[in-house]
């Protein structure tokens, strides 16, 4: 840096001459001070052997001052070197030093600063002695006179000190910009090229980058223009700026610990957002200096599925908390998103329920493929493939698929795909929008993992799936505050194929999400789950149209809480479609489901639609623990028959074994038969009879049997044929009638009157 060049500033004082000695002061150089013009003890010497033209002075005072009266500017950040060459020619030998007057912009002196440099003694006549000093604002090594930021200019020259009477000659005083001497310490950057980087795209510049980082000491590293090849992992521990770009092998990691943000990685990799994202994720999962990758609200254009295991090839598993947040991933229409479909024959055995064996064409079956075929339940995926053994490990068992048959394996393409890892724990995605564009699916989890988090994310128009679990990485999964927007909004309900998410493992929490017009909101195969505060709606345009399940529970003993949701034009379907031999052979039955305090709305749907559907895939099943309470059921535009039913496509429930079923405190609007259990029935007997037949009027849940009476109260006086009040105690006979949904109240003689019964359809 040279201010004389860049800003046109003039630092050099006038050369000595016989006519300008009035510009040289005997004082501080301020206006009005005495000068050397016409002074008897000073003269201009035009032809000195060493100096050419020079000023000769006889020292007559204890401190003989020489100052240029011109104002030499001192910009902030600029450093000036003042140099004088002096020789003694006669008399006493004095000492010489650089000196100056520090002036504020208004001309007053800056107080409290040094104005004189170190003195140098003249010891020999005729010997040229050079003295110099550097003046500037900053307290830097090598600065002699530190004047701070108040000094706007100075009057510079020399002092002669020591004995009087001596005569000296002084060459023209030189003032020059010395700022360049301090660039390495005053500038906040170092350039990798100064440490040997070539930047030709071929030479390995890794060592130069590391050397620049070692020397930066908190300053910024500048990667100046060029293409720098880094063949190995490089970690930078100081701030860095990229004018040039870098290239690296897939397995080499670029750790930018002080600039761990997507914008810097995009600059580093020449504007390639997709590559920059991959390398940033690679660093996130290899470095220890950052817990999150912040996309800074940027949209990353994605041209093909991002295989995260391929991005981080040195790791098969990861179990430290890491977060990717705050940005968008957008699928671009490049032709790289088409599903891959493979058809193979395979054998399934109930004794080996997690595997397909004797798989033909096993090498071509991709991990993560959706499996379809006879007896295959919803959302069953390929968890792993053993080509040598011709075996496929399943994400879930099949149902009633024993034997050999043809299966179809369809591999969807995901914006983010973790399936290549063995295990991923405590990984978080926060504030991301998956802009699937109807081209790609959203997110595929790893085969194994625990307590992963998906929070405040948008899955916008996934082509097939929003979130897919192909194994147990959904153990303890938290899905909070997410939105799922279908690409099938205009399709009829029965024609939709997309699924917002599926899970296989236990302890999943799905909370405060919103999903619109998928075939299913969630297919759940694990237990001990919580679904709370969500709004999912799946209606269509057709009047009297069909509806699909919003929540599919595929485990009988699901132990699941469904609470405080807005369930709109879809059902909660409870099945056992994960059982290889689906007929009941033991266990708890359909157990442990609690559906409480939800708003359940239907509109313009078929009258047979129900919000709660139990679908046994085999015979002999029953409900053993179901709590439906505090819900509001409402149908708009039409009526539906009931809110709960049994889908008997494969088999009915054994209504004679029902246990611990509670339907209480629900509100029914435009529901023909509002179910309750226990059911209160008011019976009015207008004719004398020994046996009063009490009808439950189809209001027992699932059209169940009237299995018992837990209470009976006479509400008017019981009267015999003579109209005399009798205090008989009747008894009851449950499970009467063809549908076993009636109760007989039996008296010892013909009676009439009114009773209220509390009837249960369970034991």
From TrEMBL:
SUPFAM superfamilies per record: Pectin lyase-like
InterPro entries per UniProt: Pectin_lyas_fold (IPR012334), Pectin_lyase_fold/virulence (IPR011050), RHGA/B-epi-like_pectate_lyase (IPR024535)
Entries under Pfam families matching the protein: Pect-lyase_RHGA_epim (PF12708)
Domain Rhamnogalacturonase A/B/Epimerase-like pectate lyase: 189-260
Protein name: Right-handed parallel beta-helix repeat-containing protein
């Amino acid at each position: 840096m040279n201010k004389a060049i860049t800003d046109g500033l003039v630092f050099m004082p006038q050369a000595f001459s016989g006519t300008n000695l009035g510009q040289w002061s005997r004082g501080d150089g301020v206006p009005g001070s005495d000068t050397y013009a016409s002074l008897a003890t000073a003269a201009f010497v035009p032809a000195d052997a060493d100096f050419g033209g020079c000023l000769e002075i006889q020292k007559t005072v204890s401190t003989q001052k020489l100052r240029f009266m011109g104002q030499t500017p001192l910009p902030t950040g600029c450093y000036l070197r003042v140099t004088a060459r002096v020789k003694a020619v006669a008399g006493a030998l004095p000492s010489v030093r650089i000196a100056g007057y520090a002036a504020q912009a208004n001309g007053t002196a800056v107080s409290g600063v040094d104005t004189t440099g170190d003195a140098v003694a003249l010891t020999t006549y005729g010997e040229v002695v050079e003295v110099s000093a550097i003046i500037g604002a900053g307290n830097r090594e090598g600065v002699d006179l530190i004047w701070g930021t108040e000094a706007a200019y100075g009057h510079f020259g020399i002092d002669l000190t020591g004995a009087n009477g001596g005569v000296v000659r002084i060459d023209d005083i030189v003032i020059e910009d010395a700022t360049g001497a301090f660039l390495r310490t005053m500038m906040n950057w170092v350039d990798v090229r100064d440490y040997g980087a070539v930047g030709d795209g071929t030479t390995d510049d890794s060592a130069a980058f590391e050397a620049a980082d070692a020397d930066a000491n908190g300053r910024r590293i500048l990667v100046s223009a060029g293409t720098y090849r880094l063949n190995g992992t490089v970690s930078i521990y100081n701030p860095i700026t990229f004018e040039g770009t870098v290239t690296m092998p897939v397995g080499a990691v670029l750790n930018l610990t002080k600039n761990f943000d997507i914008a810097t990685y995009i600059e580093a990799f020449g504007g390639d957002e997709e590559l920059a994202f991959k390398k940033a994720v690679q660093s996130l999962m290899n470095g220890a200096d950052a817990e999150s990758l912040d996309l800074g609200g940027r949209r990353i254009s994605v041209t093909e599925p991002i295989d995260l295991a391929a991005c981080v090839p040195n790791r098969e598993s990861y179990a430290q908390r890491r977060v990717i947040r705050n940005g968008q991933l957008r699928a671009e229409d490049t032709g790289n998103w088409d599903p891959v479909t493979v058809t193979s024959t395979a054998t399934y055995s109930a004794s080996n329920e997690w595997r397909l064996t004797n798989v033909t064409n096993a090498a071509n079956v991709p991990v993560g493929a959706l499996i379809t075929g006879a007896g295959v339940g919803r959302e069953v995926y390929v968890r792993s493939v053993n080509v040598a053994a011709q075996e496929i490990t399943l994400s879930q068992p099949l149902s009633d698929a024993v034997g050999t048959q043809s299966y179809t394996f369809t591999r969807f393409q995901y914006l983010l795909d973790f399936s290549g890892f063995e295990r991923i724990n405590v990984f978080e995605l926060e504030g991301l929008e998956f802009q699937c564009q109807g081209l790609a699916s959203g997110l595929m989890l790893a085969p194994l993992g625990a307590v992963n988090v998906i929070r405040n994310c948008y899955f916008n128009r996934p082509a097939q799936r929003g979130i897919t679990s192909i194994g147990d990485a959904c153990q303890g999964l938290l899905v909070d505050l997410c939105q799922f927007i279908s690409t099938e909004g205009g399709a009829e309900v029965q024609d939709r194929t997309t699924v917002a998410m599926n899970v296989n493992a236990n302890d999943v929490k799905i909370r405060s999400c919103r999903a619109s017009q998928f075939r299913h909101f969630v297919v759940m195969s694990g237990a001990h789950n919580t679904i709370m505060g969500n709004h999912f709606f799946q209606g269509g345009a057709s009047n009297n149209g069909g509806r699909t399940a919003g929540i599919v529970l595929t485990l009988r003993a699901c132990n699941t809480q469904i609470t405080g949701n807005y369930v709109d034009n879809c059902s909660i379907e409870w099945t056992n479609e994960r059982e290889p031999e689906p007929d009941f052979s033991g266990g708890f039955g359909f157990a442990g489901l609690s559906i409480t305090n939800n708003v359940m709305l239907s509109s313009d749907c078929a009258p047979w639609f129900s919000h709660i559907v139990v679908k046994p895939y085999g015979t002999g099943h029953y409900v053993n623990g179901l709590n439906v309470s505090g819900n509001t059921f409402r149908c708009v535009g039409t009526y539906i028959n009931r809110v709960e039913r049994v889908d008997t496509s494969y088999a009915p429930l054994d209504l004679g074994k029902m246990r611990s079923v509670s339907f209480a405190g629900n509100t029914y609007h435009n529901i023909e038969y509002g179910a309750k259990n226990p059911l209160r029935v008011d019976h009015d007997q207008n004719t004398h009879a020994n046996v009063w037949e009490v009808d439950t009027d189809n209001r027992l849940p699932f059209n169940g049997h009237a299995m018992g009476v837990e209470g009976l109260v006479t509400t008017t006086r019981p009267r015999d044929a003579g109209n005399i009040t009798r205090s008989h105690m009747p008894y009851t006979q449950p499970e009467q009638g063809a549908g076993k949904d009636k109760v007989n109240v039996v008296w010892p003689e013909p009676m009439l009157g009114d009773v209220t019964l509390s009837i249960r359809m369970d034991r």
